[in-house]
Amino acid sequence: MRRLFLRGRILSFLSEPKAPDDHASYRYEEDGAILLEGGRILAAGAYDDIAHQAGEGVDVVDHRPNLILPGFIDAHVHVPQMQVIASYGAELLDWLNTYTFPEEAKFHDTQHGRRIARLFLDEIVRHGTTTVAAYCSVHKESADAFFVEALERNMRVIAGKVMMDRNAPDGVLDTPQSSYDDTKALIAAWHGKGRLHYAITPRFAITSSPEQMDVASALAREHPDLHIQTHLSENAAEIAVAQELYPSALDYTNIYEKYGLLGPKSLLGHCIHLSEREVDAMSETQSVAVFCPTSNLFLGSGLFDYHRYKRREKPLRVACATDVGGGTNYSMLRTMDEGYKVVALQGEKLNPLASFWQITRGNAEALSLVDHVGTLEPGTDADIVVLDAKATPGMALRMERVGTLAEELFLLQTLGDDRAVREVYVAGRAVKNEGKAGG
Ligand code: GUN
Ligand code: ZN
């Protein structure tokens, strides 16, 4: 089997960085190397330590002076919303009804689903993202299309068809029974195949009847190893409607809690307006709150209190995500730039080492995938991103004043986008520059 040997400045994280000078939290090799074989990382470290392991006939790619990190992970994104991004002038519920549901209705068509799945995976990879937790549309066909494309590229993805049986147009509704049957069929067809993971995906409490929530609950009991993904506490109108629809629940979080949908593999998008009781329920069940800064700003939903959740006695598990198409960019660099500003508006700072930890190892831990991705550890998947902090003239000029690694990362986060992503490896294969894009 052919081996690939990458040389460059290598950065990976060991633990969550507490400050910009928390040098113990990461591993950095100024002259580093990674050896890949069969889609896995064989070794990573100082060039001098790795070079002798490479052997004869290895393919060498010299990425110096660029940085090499684990591929980025996006913990919440909607595949069928590629043509919803940049829809003007609405808050969440209007935005869903006016733009999103009509667009998602088109995904009953397998051809359309295949085309968008292809373009979606091309687009995330161009931006350095190698793993996503993705929502497909309500149609089984859209999830089939996404898994077909992800499998063909041998990507590690989590995805599911949304379950939604009310409060939306007919073209995007299923029924409790059909959502059960379709989800079961999708799990049987895709979960565990290649690097694919299925997520049970009730869209949110507003679009699922109590009967469908019972179905989601049954699916969760029948498949305790699967992820569950949904939305929680994004804006005021949504919270009010959810509580009206489930009057016996203590609060919005309690709706999911009562149906047994909280737990270590539960990913709850947004979590902006949670009471202390709700945060306690999240932390006791080890559920994950997913911070989606570009979406929260774009839809005017509110400010996620990153430090309130992380600094409490029993911290919440937190992931970060684009939430495209409520979110406005595929880039996890742009996402963390906006995340920094959301945190700054609340009088706090998100340090740049923590940002890069979050979109690599941090999100891998939050998605329970850290044994596979996010670390560059030997034996893990060879999903890798190569970053150039001098990618534009403006970045190159600013780099003249940069003296530390933390400053370089902050520059990449603040000014960087897909142009800073020089190469991306998915399962050891260079994919950014191979020209896969097309209609
Ligand atoms: N809540 C329910 N569905 C959605 C969605 O598609 N996007 C966002 N941002 N929030 C939601
Ligand atoms: Zn979402």
Strand order of the largest sheet: 5-6-7-8-9-10-11-12
Mean pLDDT: 97
> How many DSSP-defined strands?
15
Which percent range describes the beta-strand content? Answer: 15-25%
Count the helices. How many? 15
Q: Which percent range fits the helix content? A: 25-40%
Can you list the ligands bound to this structure? guanine, zinc ion
Give the N-to-C terminal Cα separation: 33 Å
Order of helices and strands: EEEHEEHHEHEHEHEHHEHEHHEHHEHHEE
Computed CA radius of gyration, to the nearest angstrom = 21 Å
Instruction: Please summarize the sheet with the most strands.
Output: 8 strands, parallel
Which structural class best describes the helix and strand composition?
A: alpha/beta
Ranges where pLDDT stays below 50 over 5 or more residues in a row are none
Query: Which of globular, elongated, flat, extended, rod-shaped describes the shape?
Result: globular
Task: Summarize, please.
The chain has 439 residues and is an alpha/beta fold. It is built from 15 helices and 15 strands.
Describe this entry's structure for a reader.
With 439 residues, the chain is of the alpha/beta class. The protein has helices at 47-50, 92-104, 110-126, 140-152, 176-190, 210-222, 236-245, 252-258, 276-284, 293-298, 306-310, 332-344, 352-366, 393-399, 405-415, and strands at residues 3-13, 26-37, 40-46, 59-70, 72-78, 129-136, 157-163, 196-202, 227-232, 266-270, 288-291, 317-320, 384-387, 421-426, 429-430. The strands form 2 sheets. An 8-stranded parallel sheet has the order 5-6-7-8-9-10-11-12. The chain has a 7-stranded mixed sheet with strand order 3-2-1-4-13-14-15. Helix 5 links the parallel strand 7 (157-163) and strand 8 (196-202). The radius of gyration is 21 Å and the shape is globular. The two termini are 33 Å apart. The model has no long low-confidence stretch (mean pLDDT 97). The chain binds guanine and zinc ion. Residues 78, 92, 96, 100, 203-204, 231, 234, 295, 323, 326 line the site of guanine.
